[in-house]
Amino acid sequence: MNTETFFKLTYGLYIISTSSHGKMNGYVANTAFQVTAEPPQIAISCNKDNFTSHLIEESGLFSISVLEEQASSELIGLFGYKSGKDLNKFENIPYVKGKTGVPIVTKECIAWFECKLINQMDVGSHIVFIGEIIDYGMLHETKDPLTYAYYRNVKKGKAPKNAPTYIKPEDPVVAESRSDSSRLQKYQCLVCDHIYDPTEGDPDSGILPGTAFEDIPDDWMCPVCGAGKEDFEPYN
């Protein structure tokens, strides 16, 4: 069986937020979908070990912020790869409080929904929370939402042909760079497992194909989670 089959399912990327007893937290999810129209209800899936899942169960409330296509790796890294048990994710992030008091992230998001929990289902490793929408709003009407396909294929440096960073494979300069860099060491992010491949570089960050990891500027960050260069180790 080909596991790539699962990537043919379509998803978006969202920040799910909640608060309970004065503690706010949120996480990045790719599972949020409308299940009924009247009353309007949305379902989300949350890992049982996720700190946010416990807060949702306590408060019975959550919000969904729809990430824009150009959402930064720093924002995704903060909410997607760090635990709210160790830090306040909202300390330097623009947000508003909804009717129920739950935080709603507005930074690099295009729309939001505020929900009250009406049901939940244990599905093993995750809990599916079903919430009735009690309020919602648009932040940017013209911006596109971030899809998981875009996040996977573009944020990791595999730019499509219509992307401004796309470089033709037949370009002799690129071909030479790829040939020269074939012996270069790959590095793996210890936070999110992203692989830096010198044959691809990181064009979105100005790192050209053929650039050795050692030659990347010290202030470069992982394009997926925002971790620093020091959080990478050689990968074989």
Q: Could you name the ranges where pLDDT drops below 50 across 5 or more consecutive residues?
A: 157-182
What is the CATH first-level class name of the largest domain? Mainly Beta
C-alpha Rg (nearest Å): 20 Å
Q: What spatial form do the alpha-carbon principal axes imply?
A: elongated
Straight-line N-to-C gap = 25 Å
Structural class: alpha+beta
Total number of β-strand segments?
A: 12
Q: Give the domain tally.
A: 2
The profile of the biggest β sheet is: 7 strands, antiparallel
How many H/I helices?
4
What number is the mean pLDDT?
85
Q: Helix and strand string, N-terminal first? A: EEEEHEHEEEEHHEEE
Roughly what fraction of the amino acids lie in strands? 25-35%
Q: In which range does the helix fraction lie? A: 10-25%
General description of the model:
The structure is a single chain. The chain contains 4 helices and 12 strands, in the order ββββαβαββββααβββ. It has 236 residues and is of the alpha+beta class. The chain folds into 2 domains: 10-148, Electron Transport, Fmn-binding Protein, Chain A (Pnp Oxidase, Chain A); 160-235, Single Sheet (Rubrerythrin, domain 2). Strands 2-1-5-8-9-4-3 form a 7-stranded antiparallel β-sheet. Strands 11-10-12 form a 3-stranded antiparallel β-sheet, with no helix packed on it. Strands 6-7 form a two-stranded antiparallel sheet. The longest helix has 10 residues, at 172-181. It is elongated. The model is unreliable at 157-182 (pLDDT under 50).
